[in-house]
Design a protein that fits this description.
- The chain is of the alpha/beta class.
- Helix 6 packs parallel to helix 8 and helix 9 packs parallel to helix 10.
- Bound molecules: (3S,4R)-3-hydroxy-2-oxopiperidin-4-yl beta-D-xylopyranoside (XIL).
- (3S,4R)-3-hydroxy-2-oxopiperidin-4-yl beta-D-xylopyranoside binds next to loops.
- Keywords: Carbohydrate metabolism, Glycosidase, Hydrolase, Polysaccharide degradation, Xylan degradation.
- InterPro entries: GH, GH10, GH10_dom.
């Protein structure tokens, strides 16, 4: 691997190159991470249910390890995520007697969580996904149904940003979502971010998750999304990129290895995506992959349980794929 260029070095005049990790991959892919990436995100371990499994009982062990590794190796850190409808815990929305909490109590718990987490890591994370996936996928609806929305109301989003800004005034605060390039959802995300900016809510960026595949979305839709969000004057980050070998509707589950043709098509797509990212380097400050290499990806189980996938630019042994050479 000696003649392989370091990916983050190749991109040093464009944007930082990130990977999502967990305690296992932080160990098993240590060398690959150090060589190619200069930004890290916790795949799961900084989500609500894992940081605060019981009220007031924070578990920072894994997050601390991640922060230490990043500091030792001069890597930046993206925080993921503070307010989300998934991976929260039962107690959060409940009183001790099992009834649902009211707005005031939930806001208090939100503030407590955000100020504790951001307070502990103040100055360590350059950006935070403050609110994740609050927009509906359904065209007849604006915000996604969730306990946050139900109990607090629409301003749960603004409140989260305000609490985060109070706790770490120098961090860049992001709204993060998927299907971000889909025309209708793009407009809903735009509407949300614009309404926050109009109210002077401290929001600094939009995260495009970029859970894409070898067929979708189109480059035109991606470009349109980038331009639309950038027109609000915020920065953009590609926060969870993977390029699945399968279209969303393709539920095949019998492949144990990707074919040459699939690998080639994927490389073609990576090439095109990164050309677009480079074109918009003035607004895109980071591109993060939702994993380090094909040895582990959440797509091995999603949306088809047990199906393997190979969505990254490094293969299962960390060997650069054609996709790597095309983007490097
Ligand atoms: C995923 C993780 O990768 C999985 O391990 C976990 O089981 C579910 O969450 N959008 C997000 C990420 O914002 O937090 C999700 O991560 C993927 C979709």
């Amino acid at each position: 691997q000696l003649n392989t260029p370091d990916l983050y070095q190749v991109y040093k005049n464009f944007f930082t190159i990130g990977a999502a990790v967990n305690s296992k991959t932080l160990e098993s892919e240590k060398e690959l991470l150090k060589k190619h990436y200069n930004s890290l995100t916790a795949e799961n371990e900084m989500k609500f249910e894992l940081l605060q499994p019981e009220q007031g009982n924070f578990n920072f062990a894994n997050a601390d390890k991640l922060v230490a590794f990043a500091n030792e190796n001069n890597m930046k850190l993206r925080g993921h995520t503070l307010v989300w409808h998934n991976q929260t815990t039962e107690w959060l929305f409940q009183n001790p007697d099992g009834t649902q909490v009211n707005r005031e109590i939930l806001l208090q718990r939100m503030e407590e969580h955000i100020s504790t987490v951001l307070g502990r890591y103040k100055g360590q994370f350059y950006s935070w996904d403050v609110v994740n996936e609050a927009i509906s996928d359904d065209d007849s609806e604006y915000l996604r149904k969730s306990k946050w929305l139900d109990i607090i109301g629409e301003d749960f989003i603004a409140k989260a940003f305000e609490f985060a800004h109070q706790a770490d005034p120098n961090a860049s605060l992001f709204y993060n979502d998927y299907n971000e390039s889909h025309p209708n959802k793009r407009e809903r995300i735009y509407r949300l971010v614009k309404s926050l900016l109009d109210k002077d809510v401290p929001i600094h960026g939009v995260g495009l998750q970029a859970h894409w595949n070898v067929h979708d979305p189109s480059l035109d839709d991606i470009r349109a999304a980038i331009e639309r969000y950038a027109s609000l004057g915020v920065q953009l980050q590609i926060t969870e990129m993977d390029v699945s070998m399968f279209s969303w509707d393709d539920r095949r589950a019998d492949l144990t290895q990707p074919t040459e043709e699939m690998l080639h098509l994927q490389a073609e797509r990576y090439d095109q995506f990164f050309r677009v990212f480079r074109e918009y380097k003035e607004v895109i400050s980071n591109v993060t992959f939702w994993g380090a290499n094909d040895s582990y990806t959440w797509l091995n189980d999603f949306p088809v349980r047990g199906r393997k996938n190979w969505p990254f630019v490094f293969g299962e042994n960390g060997v650069p794929k054609e996709s790597f050479w095309r983007i490097a």
